[in-house]
# Entry
Amino acid sequence: VAVKTFGWGIMGTGDIARRFAADLAFVPGAAIHAVLSRSVEKAEAFRAETGAKKAYHDVEAFLSDPLIKAVYIATPNSLHLAQSLRALRNRKPVLVEKPLAPSSPEAEVIEREALRQKSFAMEAMWTRFLPAVQAAKAHIEAGAIGDIRKISADLSYFRDYDPESRFFSRALGGGAALDLGVYPVSLAMFFLGEPDQVSGRWFSAKSGVDMRTEINLHYPSAEAELSCGFDRDGANHFLIEGTTGAIRLDAPFLKARRLTRYSLSARNSPLLGPLPEGDGLAGKLLSRLPSSLTRFLGRQVEHYPFPGNGLQFQAIAVMDALKAGETQSPIMPLEASVAVLRAVAIVLSRSPMPVPPG
Ligand SMILES: NC(=O)c1ccc[n+]([C@@H]2O[C@H](COP(=O)([O-])OP(=O)(O)OC[C@H]3O[C@@H](n4cnc5c(N)ncnc54)[C@H](OP(=O)(O)O)[C@@H]3O)[C@@H](O)[C@H]2O)c1
# Structure
């Protein structure tokens, strides 16, 4: 039986566009139908490299191609709003790179347009769709750690200061919170929902965007202490502590392939518990012990391997949703993307802290 291929159209030819194109190899029935670039040469090079059928540099021609079943927007943050609206108005479903837009009001415009067009739109918050993250969610919903009391996560990767790059450029929608912070904030809200209150502080880079941001989400009986930065490499794991145990999405949690489960006593043990800076030597030694023994001691590792970069799971979710006639993903609804940006804005609307010495 011939399976109909689902043709993706990719806007942008940068780093993430390439990784997404590669991961489509792991999506049954998917193909890259077309790419859009500002330059004819780049579009053609990307087409040749990825095996896409068409290379466009004119956005109207790209969006009029009937064989594009969904558009993946992989351009700098500052372009997400305009390009999403354009695609939606051409009746194309959209998967928009994170963050959905540089601000929550702009993200709300996308949400309203998708509702008006009754067309599918989703932020490409791929981490929510990873098997390890889905497993953590299932464990928690099954009561494996009791009620969540605390989430702690840092996502930091050192970057050399370059005011022209999309990381530090204000015009391109730069800053650590929009590049990295949306991951821990989105994931914390995936487990805890929208907070009652948000607090935090940020430190400025020379260009005026945030170089390091700390965001705390406050719930009636839980707290999420989250941070991100370009100023150093962080431990980059995501720890969820409950009343009867804990689960850690192991580093780097944004592409988690592994999680560790802790009983309450293992969580509180200096040897078996999760260390803030990573597991170091203790973790290495523990990983050599038979799993039956560590499980007996209250610490259990679960592996969720996948090929490629992990961007395939969100693509599968988009295709499944479209097949089911849905206009949003229940795992990453637009309202939740807006809520993340609202939390980021509460912190970034404050004056920055003086940059710490050194
Ligand atoms: N999911 C993830 O893990 C992940 C990782 C990295 C980035 N992202 C997100 O993906 C988006 C793109 O990031 P990236 O790292 O792929 O960036 P990038 O390497 O700079 O690529 C962005 C692409 O957008 C196109 N573009 C159109 N107008 C542009 C403009 N005015 N300035 C610069 N580029 C423009 C360019 O393609 P043409 O020159 O061909 O037009 C460029 O190659 C961002 O929103 C980012 O937050 C997600």
Observations:
- The CA atoms of residues 10 and 35 lie 5 Å apart.
- The pocket of NAP is lined by residues 12-17, 37-39, 42, 74-77, 79, 97-98, 124, 126, 166, 179 (CB under 6 Å).
- DSSP finds twelve helices and 14 strands in the chain.
- The chain has a mean pLDDT of 96.
